[in-house]
Amino acid sequence: MRSSSGDFLLSPELSSLRADVRAFVDERVIPAEDEVLAAFGRGDEAPLRALQDAARAVDLFTPHLPTDLGGRGLGVMGMCALFREMGRSLLGPRAFNCDAPDQGNMDLLLKTASPAVRERWLAPLCRAEITSAFCMTEPAPGAGADPSNLRTTATRDGDDWVIDGHKWFSTGGSLASFLIVMARTSDDPREGASLVVVDRHADGVELLRDVPVMAPDVLQHREGEFRFTGVRVGADAVLGGIGQGFRLAQERLIPARLTHCMRWLGLAERALGMCREYLAERISFGKPLAEHQLIQAMVARNATDIHAGNLMTLHCAWELERSDARTARPFSSMTKNHVAQLLCRVLDDAIQMHGAKGYSDDLPFARWYRTARAARIADGPDEVHTMVVARDFLRGKVDLLA
Ligand SMILES: Cc1cc2nc3c(=O)[nH]c(=O)nc-3n(C[C@H](O)[C@H](O)[C@H](O)COP(=O)(O)OP(=O)(O)OC[C@H]3O[C@@H](n4cnc5c(N)ncnc54)[C@H](O)[C@@H]3O)c2cc1C
Hints:
The protein is α+β, with helices and mostly antiparallel strands and 402 residues long. The chain has helices at 12-41, 46-57, 76-86, 92-95, 102-112, 115-126, 245-281, 293-322, 325-353, 355-359, 365-372, 382-394, and strands at 132-135, 153-157, 160-171, 178-184, 193-199, 205-211, 223-233, 283-284, 287-288. Strands 2-3-7-6 form a four-stranded antiparallel β-sheet, with no helix packed on it. It has a three-stranded mixed β-sheet with strand order 1-4-5. The protein has a two-stranded antiparallel sheet with strand order 8-9. The longest helix has 37 residues, at 245-281. Bound molecules: flavin-adenine dinucleotide. Flavin-adenine dinucleotide binds at residues 101, 134-137, 140, 144-145, 169-171, 223, 374, 377-381, 383-384, 387.
């Protein structure tokens, strides 16, 4: 029998749900990858919609949502179980309507949005009728790795707020219906920022371009650059109250970072599994590649890294369920760094182990690698997470044997 850590710490119900998601990804999502992605690139969303309808029909759509919104009310551990399976395909998260940034945005709106925003934006987002984006990062000298450089402003005018600024790397921004924009509302270092929901097509919202990047387009994942000039929103567009932006962004980003790790683990596991087949078949210097020790060393390192990443992710999910985002923060930084780096290494090694074919677009590794490389930068670069881990550890705030 296959030794499995996939069901580790999961209830029988979650294990069974996980098996259903895995089967759906194997049987429906992976075979449809090329067709759905190519059609989407031509502006034809019908194959994607068909896949989403199929997920809905077997009750696997938006499982992270509360039951009254059509989900299964999964906690973070539950998301771990399912998102790893969905992440085995770049298409998987969107097929189940659990993709970034929408899933993190749904979570944030559920906790903080006014009734008007919930009705206008959250409800259709949960039904996958629209998509969304999160606009925090700005070109230098604005907010990047250090959010305190925030330059975009929201200024009060009567009951409204008026937004001016410049954002980029707003993933999915160009196709989104609404944007969650971080803007400065005062000079207070802790409470000087607010999150505001903006209609993507409102007066004053200008899409400058999709920034050309290393990765190929994968569905809506394009990096929008926006200028906001005198964009007017009502008071009910502010999430969680004025001055809550930095706190809410942290609360959104810590679990969202972990859900990235879950998806990345799925992709790494699939890539390593694909290597196993080639290594068994390909004969070099008189024996299968799988019998060469240098290859075995690569395989063992990657398998160990994925397993460790899986355990780190589960531990951080458990921590998030039982305590608060602040306690989980150093663990989420450790996990994000570990999993982002292992993903890049596993894909790089998969290319290496497949030789020229691995480098070609006959196999998906090169494409996946170009997408995966952003993992070490987006949601905080490696160095910033390293800084957080060291700072919290040196302050005595990390129980390493938790
Ligand atoms: C594909 C992709 C998607 C993204 N999606 C979004 C999105 O949807 N919404 C959004 O708001 N942003 C998004 N981002 C932006 C991302 O969050 C930022 O790129 C990231 O926070 C780093 O900011 P920066 O690019 O401005 O780098 P900078 O702040 O200019 O930093 C440059 C480099 O300096 C180094 N560095 C920075 N600080 C330190 C330090 N303390 N110690 C040592 N070295 C340091 C790091 O190596 C870092 O990569 C995305 C980025 C990418 C690549």
